């Protein structure tokens, strides 16, 4: 993996900003990336300053004028080659994701696979950017709608998916004819720099104009520059609800577009008619995968009173089987939290739950000793709680699962919907009526609603995102591509007259 970093010639003094193949001499502060796996310094990156940002924006504006004129299938061919490059780099890039972020090696590989999958999706999409035709009320007229590239797209990504979510946005934006400026999380800058080098290799072979793929590494100020920049018509931001509200307010003030994918407080309903074994597997993976640091992590388990004790017993037994440790060791199930600040939030949530009356059936805590020197490893915990607890209403980015009880399906759905967030949801049931009720307009209010699978692990083909404080944005599949384009209605008069709409007469 370190050979991979060395092969990309990652250097601290020139890694904080790039316009594509060209790396700028960064003028910001040094950002050090420490692995939560072992606490060791992976590398340091000099952040971009405002001058670097302006250079990236200027190049992007210039590149857009050429890139938008490339036929979409030609842009798609470039993206196809990016997918091939990612296949070649899947192992080292997946290891870097695992080591810098702390997720399991399988999840690191899986994240790179998501990038490959979205490339495949985008290639097909490049030949399907369709509009609509409709009949005009005026004789001798034709009407249709078409989509054009929007321009510059700013992408703010989070640490928990340091490469995949960026690719969801970027690959679609590129085939649509947009250019992109990426602000990665300052907690995982090396993953972004690695991707920039991989992309640059492909762009060089295809004479892609400099500026189509911009990178600006830095802290909160970079996101603020993007959000307030009228030259960027769309900013896609992934992260906390607090961050999303700030981005949305800044964009709203200038009438820009926001594509927000924010917090989730996801629940699984386990019905009395559930396949309990499947339910337990889905709940455990959903709750402890990525150490609870997914926006789709299962945080609440809503269990029917008739099977509550059985589910509780099986959960406790399953948690005893979890192996916590180095995520690059594929025998381990749970890796570390991203940093010690995340550990503090985890401990605070446990204390808050206890103060409100919660009872932990699987105790949490910080692990110490050999293999846990980074101080970022914690025990996945389970608490019996009540839906109205403030901490249950809150999204804690850590492996804490709240166990809740219900008696009727209407009550279960009300509990499921009774939080500010609305990203992902699931029901475990073999009862067709319950499943359909859950998926109906009177059921889950989330952007994602599943039956007999967990809350995490979305596929590329479906649009990803949620409602309420999750932000309302949609990324990845389906018709999410439309967010990166501007729609235009066209009317063509091929007659010798000039009839007006609505039968209006205007004779001169």
TrEMBL record:
Record CDD domains: ALDH_F7_AASADH
Active-site residue list: 261
InterPro entries for this protein: Ald_DH/histidinol_DH (IPR016161), Ald_DH_C (IPR016163), Ald_DH_CS_GLU (IPR029510), Ald_DH_N (IPR016162), Aldehyde_DH_dom (IPR015590), ALDH7A1-like (IPR044638)
Domain Aldehyde dehydrogenase: 23-489
SUPFAM superfamilies: ALDH-like
Gene3D superfamilies assigned to the protein according to its UniProt record, in alphabetical order: Aldehyde Dehydrogenase, Chain A, domain 1, Aldehyde Dehydrogenase, Chain A, domain 2
PROSITE patterns reported for this sequence: ALDEHYDE_DEHYDR_GLU
A GO molecular function held by the record: aldehyde dehydrogenase (NAD+) activity
Keywords annotated in UniProt: NAD, Oxidoreductase
Highest rank taxon of the organism: Bacteria
Assembly and binders: Homotetramer.
Name used for this protein in its record: aldehyde dehydrogenase (NAD(+))
